[in-house]
Each structure stands twice: as C-alpha cells, then as structure tokens.
Write a structure and sequence with these properties.
Blueprint (H helix, E strand, L loop, with lengths): L2 E6 L15 H4 L3 H9 L1 E6 L9 H8 L9 H7 L10 E10 L6 E4 L8 H11 L8 E5 L4 E6 L23 E2 L10 H22 L2 H8 L7 E8 L11 E4 L3 H9 L3 E3 L11 H22 L6 E6 L4 H4 L3 H26 L2 E6 L15 E6 L15 H4 L6 H5 L4 E4 L2 H6 L2
Parallel strand pairs: 1-11, 1-12, 2-14, 9-10, 9-11
Antiparallel strand pairs: 2-13, 3-4, 3-6, 3-8, 4-7, 5-6, 12-13
Helix pairs in contact: 2-11, 4-8, 9-11
Length: about 425
C-alpha cells in the first residue's frame, strides 16, 4: 500500500461562540492528528475552484481529476444502489421534505426534521411506487431522509431541480419551492419536466394525507410530505479510472462514485434509524465506519495501492448548527481511526492525506466557499514536498490540523486535482 486518503465531509468551519471563538477542529482534543500534523505538512484546498461553493459530488469528482460536466449527482446516487440503469434513464437525488401546502409551496424543512425513520421511509416509498404515470419509474429510499428517483426510458436531463437550497443562497428557513423546468427549448426536455412535475404533484397528494404522516403530526413531528429533487442525469459519468484503489463507502453517492471510478468498494449496511434521535444513529454510523475503515486498511494493505475513506457524519452538525456535536465526532475519529493510522503508516512508510470535501460552517448551516485544511503525512524527511517550512522549526512542531494552521502551512493553496499532483497520489 502506497497511500491512504481520508476525506472528512464538511469538516471546514468558522469560529463558534459556543466554542469560545474556536472552530470545532481547533476546540477538539486531537493528540493523534496533532502528531501527524507536527511531522507532516499542511496547506489548504479549494476542492473545485476558488469562490465556488461545492457539493460533495462536485468536490470528489474534482479532487479525483475529473471535469464536472462529465458527471451528475443523480447518476452517482443511483449507481450506489441496486437499481440497474441503461442509457436514457433519468436519475435524480431525492429528499423527503416538509412544505406547508401545494398552493403556497413554502419549504419548512428540507429533511423532514431529520426524524424520518428507515421503516417510515420504506412505507412511504412503497406507496409512492404505486403512482400511475405514462412511463415506468423507481423510487428507492436509501439512508434516513435520502432517496433516489429513476424514470426508465429516453428522457432528457436538461431540466432544473426543485431544491432551492442548491440553486441559490439560502436566506431563510422557509423558501418558495419552484417547479421543475426545462433548461432548453428541446421538446424532450419539456416532456421530461412535465412528467417529473406530474410525479411530484401526485407524490404530495399521497404523502400529505398518508396515515403515517398524520401520526407524525400528532406526535409533533414534521410530515414527510414532499420530495425535493436535484442532480438530473441520463448518461453514465465519464470518470478517470482508479483500478488499484479500494474505497470504504457507505453512502450511495460515495459507493456510486467509487464503482464508476473503477475502485473496489468495501462497504457495510448503515445502521437503520429506528427512533427519532438522529444523532444517536449518526454516532452509531460513525463508530461502524471507523471500525470498517480500519479493517479495510488491514485487509487490503498488500492487495491495493491506495485506500479512500470518506467519513460522512462530520457534515451533519454543520447543517444543524451543532458545533459541540462536530467537536465530539472529531475527537472520536482521533482516538479511533487516526490513532490506528498514526501507528500503521509509520510502520509501513505509507502516505496519508487528510482533508475535506467542503466547509460546512455551523453558524451558516450550509456549505460555504471557504477552503478546507489539508494534512499530508509521510514518515520520511527526504520525501517531504517542501524543502523549507514557512514557520520556524519550534513553532512548526506545535501545528494542529485546523483551518488557521492550514492557511499558513508549507503546502500553500491548492485547487481541485492539484492535491494528488502535489502529493504524488
């Protein structure tokens, strides 16, 4: 094994008042990351380009050296499930959400309060798949509020989404939902948008009056009465191939990206959300992802050149303005996954890159254009990238893996796939 890439989803942040003006990375106790930082080199990365707010799919597509035009979120999500796709099938990423009414279309919560259990999602999906349309389709729930919608046949992907959180800057909790619209004068684009809008309307009629959602309302929970759709795609993403890589992926997007990139996927079934405490579920998922990641590194150390580990859970506290939860997750990662990697890499002379896909500041509850910190570790002074550290020697040993130290790190600024070029991955 030559290297290990760890991407911490949404890890970048800004100073938080509840953390005494520190970011979660700065506030967290991370002795193992501190050790790697003191020996390694640091920098900062704009995962797509500067002054751009990336989504996870855009970030990983870019980091791995691909053109964003050659991929779509919907296709990657669908390819991370067991749905069989052929050319012309329209794939979209879906969210169960909450709106006030079909007439007003005010978005109350784009994730139905994060309280939709796995069983509830499966019950709602079963009835959604009974909708009558002039074409075949598949709606598949995946993890928590997430799902995939695929229309079978010769459709166009030249259509908009209806998830305004990904089309304009979010300025309030309640937003107006727009219809799916064709993005060209093409007849097929118009037909496709009509079909998708018809499905969304019929879906609301089923979901809003569904007995399950009536029970949720009585319990003081948000009804999962609407579907937000984005990332339309009909073509197989044309991605660079990484045949000698193993990917530890458990979210459909990451599984789909890894499969399409030719990686061997080492996955597991994510813990089902059975109650309404989503953070209890997320901590169970984080614990399992760390355990499986360590197992994968050990198993494939002689079979593969690189291992790609993507930790999703660190993104969610940013969206929910929970800096303490983000701090706790970072500390758990440090005493489990990074404690193991520190010992493993030193013995095997293996490179490690630790970075993020985007920043998700708790204060804004959304992705931002801020860069993410990068830590490059290799236990051989002769193979370090920079010849002279930017900081005096004594001070450089006190470096920590955090936004502030990354901005003055030896590696400097990087854009997209410059990360692999600069580190030799």
């Amino acid at each position: 094994m030559k290297g290990i890439l760890v991407i911490l989803d949404g890890i970048g942040d800004l100073p938080c008042r509840i953390l005494n003006g520190k970011t979660p990375l700065e506030a967290a106790e991370t002795p193992n990351l501190d050790f790697l930082s003191s020996i390694g080199e640091m920098g900062f990365l704009y995962t797509v380009k500067q002054d751009f707010i990336p989504e996870t799919d855009e970030a990983i597509v870019s980091i791995f050296g691909n053109d964003l035009m050659n991929s779509s979120r919907g296709q990657l999500e669908a390819r991370g499930t067991d749905i069989k796709l052929i050319r012309g099938d329209l794939a979209l990423r879906a969210n169960f959400a909450t709106i006030d009414s079909l007439e007003n279309k005010n978005l109350i919560d784009r994730r139905a309060g994060r309280t939709l259990t796995t069983k509830e999602a499966e019950i709602l999906a079963k009835d959604l798949n009974k909708i009558k349309l002039p074409c075949n389709f598949i709606f598949k729930p995946t993890i928590q509020h997430r799902g995939v919608l695929v229309f079978k046949g010769g459709f166009s992907d030249d259509i908009s989404g209806n998830d305004s959180s990904y089309t304009k800057k979010r300025t309030a909790d309640k937003q107006k939902i727009k219809n799916i619209e064709p993005l060209s004068d093409d007849d097929n684009a118009q037909y496709t948008s009509n079909i998708v809008n018809e499905f969304i309307t019929k879906a609301f009629e089923i979901l809003d009056k569904h007995p399950l959602n009536e029970k949720r309302r009585k319990r003081g929970l948000m009804p999962a009465n609407y579907l937000l759709l984005r990332g339309a795609g009909i073509e197989t993403p044309k991605l660079r191939q990484y045949k000698k890589w193993v990917s530890v992926g458990y979210m459909p997007l990451l599984i789909g990206f890894s499969r399409t990139s030719g990686m061997e996927v080492y996955s597991f079934n994510y813990p089902k959300l059975k109650g309404f405490d989503v953070y209890h579920n997320l901590h169970k998922g984080l614990k399992k992802s760390c355990k499986v990641s360590i197992k994968a590194v050990k198993k494939f150390q002689k079979k593969s050149d690189y291992v790609y580990i993507h930790i999703k859970e660190t993104d969610l506290p940013g969206h929910d303005n929970k800096p303490l939860e983000k701090k706790f997750m970072i500390e758990y990662l440090d005493k489990t996954l990074f404690k193991f990697l520190k010992k493993f890499a030193a013995k095997k002379d293996i490179k490690i890159i630790i970075t993020g896909d985007h920043s998700t500041p708790c204060n804004s509850k959304s992705h931002s254009q801020d860069p993410v910190p990068v830590l490059y570790y290799f236990n051989d002074e002769k193979k370090k990238i920079s010849q002279k550290p930017l900081l005096p020697k004594p001070q450089s040993k006190e470096k920590r893996f955090c936004e502030r130290d990354a901005l003055r790190g030896e590696l400097g600024k990087m854009i997209g796939n410059e990360l692999f070029t600069k580190t030799g991955f």
